[in-house]
Amino acid sequence: MANESEGHLNGPGRFAQTRHDQVADEAAPPPALPPEPPVIELAEPAWRLSSPSFYGPGFYGHGLACPGVMTEALLGGAHRTLPCGTLVTFRNPSNGVVVTVPVVDRGPFIAGRDWDLTGGACLVLDFCHTGSIQWHLGST
Predict the structure, then answer these.
(1) Domains, the chain, ordered by start
(2) Residue 3 Cα distances to 6, 9, 16, 17, 106, angstroms
(3) What's the order of all strands across the beta sheet hosting 53-55?
(4) Are 53 and 128 in contact (CB under 8 A)?
(5) pLDDT tens track for 85-94
(6) Number of C-alpha atoms within 13 angstroms, CB side, residue 137?
(7) What is the pLDDT of residues 17-49, one digit of tens each?
(8) What is the pTM of this model?
(9) Do 91 and 97 contact (CB within 8 A), yes or no?
């Protein structure tokens, strides 16, 4: 007959777990957790300075180079070469207001300008005039 400290037979050649083994299992430390992934800090986007123009009431109802129609509420920008839908973030340096808009049209067609802002975008930024504005590709 099997010794009590070794357990007792539980079927042919099998031993049941003894109370001593159960206590040892309960006291076992929990399995180690996987290491935390490293935190990657992304650099702030580099703001570029530009002097955009804006287009508004005279263009409402007109088609855009990217599918759509110009409205007074449309938030967007026009650029000569960036693909339609590219997100661009603009910041008005005089008030800190930031807005992210898609490229919705082609332009501007004024020498020395990189951007035309829609009426909706210029209203959000409180920047419906000429002057300098900051921008970078992507969202904030």
Answers:
(1) 48-137 (2.40.40.10)
(2) 5, 10, 12, 13, 89
(3) 48-50, 133-137, 87-91, 98-105, 77-78, 116-118, 53-55
(4) no
(5) 999 999 999 9
(6) 6
(7) 555 555 555 667 777 777 777 776 666 779 999
(8) 0.68
(9) yes
- Alpha carbon of residue 87 to chain centroid: 11
Give the integer Cα–Cα distance in Å for 46 and 135: 8
| Residue 13 pLDDT level (bands cut at 50, 70, 90) | low
Q: If DSSP states are collapsed to H, E and C, what string results for the chain?
A: CCCHHHCCECCCCCECCCHHHHHHHHHCCCCCCCCCCCCCCCCCCCCEEECCEEECHHHCCCECCCCCECCCCCCCEECCCCCCCCEEEEECCCCCCEEEEEEEECCCCCCCCCCEEEHHHHHHHCCCCCCCEEEEECCC
Report d(CA 90, CA 87) in Å as an integer. 10
> For tokens 């290491």, what's the residue?
35
Q: What is the rounded distance in angstroms from the CA atom of residue 62 to the CA atom of residue 24?
A: 79
Structure tokens given for 122:
């210029």
